[in-house]
Design goal:
The chain is mainly beta and 155 residues long. The protein contains no helices and seven strands. Strands 1, 2, 3, 4, 5, 6 and 7 form a seven-stranded antiparallel β-sheet that branches. Strand 3 and strand 4 form a beta hairpin. It is elongated and about 80 Å long.
C-alpha cells in the first residue's frame, strides 16, 4: 500500500505593461491569482510468482489505484492602475477529479546466465470523474478498458 499527498496554496501576481510600437498603443495587465490544490494517490499491489523451471517463472499481479484531487483557483484583474479588481471567470475555476484504476497482469520471466527475457499482458479498467463547480457547473465521466502488452530483453 502506497499513499501520497500533495497540497499547495499559491499566489501569483502579474503586472505587465504592453506597448505596440506599430500602432502606437499600450495596455496594462494587472492580475492577482489565488489557488488551492489538493491531490492524493492510494495504490496497492498484490503479486504471486510460481517457478516453472530453474530459469523461468510465471507471475500474476493485481494493482488498484485511487487518485482524488481538487483545485480552487480565482484570478482577479484590474482594468488599470488604481482601478478595483474584478473576478475574471475565464481564468478562474473550482474543480474536482477522481481517477480510479484496476490492473490485472500475467507475466512470464526467463533468466539464464546473461539472458533476461520477460513478456506479459495486462488488462486495465479505469474510470475518470471530473466535476467543475465554477464558473459553469459541468461534469465529465469516462471509463477506459485496455489491454497492455509488454516485453523486454536484457543481455
Amino acid at each position: 500500500f502506497t499513499p501520497t499527498w500533495n497540497n499547495g496554496d499559491n499566489q501569483n501576481i502579474l503586472n505587465s505593461f504592453l506597448t505596440d510600437f506599430l500602432n502606437m498603443t499600450s495596455d496594462t495587465v494587472i492580475q492577482d491569482q489565488d489557488g488551492i490544490r489538493n491531490s492524493a494517490s492510494f495504490s496497492s499491489n498484490v503479486s504471486y510468482s510460481e517457478p516453472l523451471s530453474k530459469s523461468s517463472q510465471l507471475q500474476i499481479s493485481y494493482n488498484h489505484n485511487l487518485a482524488p484531487g481538487s483545485s480552487d483557483q480565482k484570478t482577479f484583474v484590474q482594468a488599470g492602475l488604481g482601478e478595483p479588481s474584478v473576478l475574471d471567470t475565464s481564468l478562474s475555476n473550482v474543480f474536482s477529479s477522481d481517477y480510479q484504476s484496476h490492473r490485472a497482469s500475467l507475466d512470464y520471466r526467463y533468466n539464464y546466465k546473461i539472458i533476461n527475457f520477460n513478456t506479459g499482458l495486462s488488462w486495465q479498467y479505469a474510470s475518470l470523474h471530473n466535476r467543475q463547480d465554477f464558473p459553469v457547473p459541468y461534469e465529465f465521466e469516462r471509463d477506459f478498458r485496455n489491454f497492455l502488452p509488454n516485453a523486454g530483453m536484457q543481455i
